[in-house]
Amino acid sequence: MAHVSLPHDAKAGPTKPEVRAVLLRKLDLGPTDHFAEVGSCTGAVTIEAARRAGRVTALERNAERIETTRKNLAANEVTGNVDLREAEAPEGLPDDADTLFIGGSRNYEAVLDKAVETGVDRIVMNVSRLEVAGAATEAFRERDLLADVVQFQVSRGYELAGATSFNADNPVYMLVGGTGAVAADGGPR
After folding, report:
1. Which residues are annotated as part of the binding site?
2. Which residue range forms the structural domain that includes residue 150?
3. Prediction pTM value
4. Per-residue pLDDT for the chain (189 aa), expressed as one digit of tens each?
5. Other CB atoms closer than 10 Å to residue 116's CB: what's the count?
6. Binding site for S-adenosyl-L-methionine: what residues are annotated?
7. CATH of the domain at 57
8. Rounded to whole angstroms, how far apart are CA atoms 55 and 98?
9. Partner of 83 at 20 to 30 A CA spacing, among 47, 69, 75, 128?
């Protein structure tokens, strides 16, 4: 996985590299895929997706964050296949996306409805709050989208009194599925 440089801050924090690695494995992006993202924020996922997918449509409703995404794309020399849209989801989503990443919980049920309507093959949603994870899991199930739920936590080492201790990041709940139904390992069923 190539390094992602994020010199511009969105005050919301990027999706952590380890989480992006799992996310990208679950999405299994290829050069013919049209990847759509809800909530580009810093552009960390947008950058990674643009390096793999044929086309990327990234939505961000916050004007400052869309500018941060734009600057970080430029800092990583990512150009050409990315359509940045200052828009709300689901209205700003393309009708021909193959893959979808939902990075925030705002309007996620309407986003899932749009994904079903347009036949999005692979969907991943990251959630950091337990109550939202439960409700989103039910929303995936109700739409017959759910293939897998993964919960994981990353801890980072730091020096403490000449030894190594760890600070834990918040856990992440990753909901995986889509209209194309994927197996728990991220591949087709």
Report:
1. 15, 39-43, 60, 89
2. 17-177
3. 0.89
4. 577 765 556 555 667 889 999 999 999 999 999 999 999 988 899 999 999 999 999 999 988 889 988 998 999 888 779 999 999 999 999 999 999 999 978 899 999 999 999 999 999 999 999 999 999 999 999 999 999 999 989 999 999 999 999 999 889 999 999 997 544 454 543
5. 15
6. 15, 39-43, 60, 89
7. 3.40.50.150
8. 10
9. 128
